[in-house]
Predict the structure.
Amino acid sequence: MTSDSNDAEGAARTRYVTQVFERFRAPLTRYLKSLLARREDAEDVAQETYVRLLGAGGLEQSDVRLRAYMFKVATNLAYDRFRERRVRKHDSDAVLESVPHNAPSIERIVTMEQSIAIVKRALLELPPRCREVFLLRVSAEQSYEDIAERLGVSKRTVEREMQHALDLCQRRLKEGE
């Protein structure tokens, strides 16, 4: 293999890692903020995670696996940050006790990603208004009354369409097991 082809592969790999990182940066930062409490620390750890991903060899070209690996690296870096703080500042054991012991495993993250993909595909099967009801309820967290008013239908219609969407998602998730 020539140096030019190695450079091209490296550039393509960097673009891929950057693209996936940017797509999942916001959820990663939110997750880290829940672990670290300070936004600045969360952003620092997210950036350090990106640097580690760029330096990691043998990454698969799978968004789901790369995202899972990204969260695992970030979790480990967050734990490292807690340990550094404890040594540097001689903090009490309370700091370490605040670290969740049940951080999601890579397998759990992959399973969640697969479930989200199944739900997204199921939503595409729904009639447009039914899909809109579901998204307004779940994403925008609107009440049935607000959705009914917005769409110009009865609250009962919103309830039926929401139930239809939930039933379809549940069936698709069971089929995916």
Observations:
- The chain has eight helices and no strands.
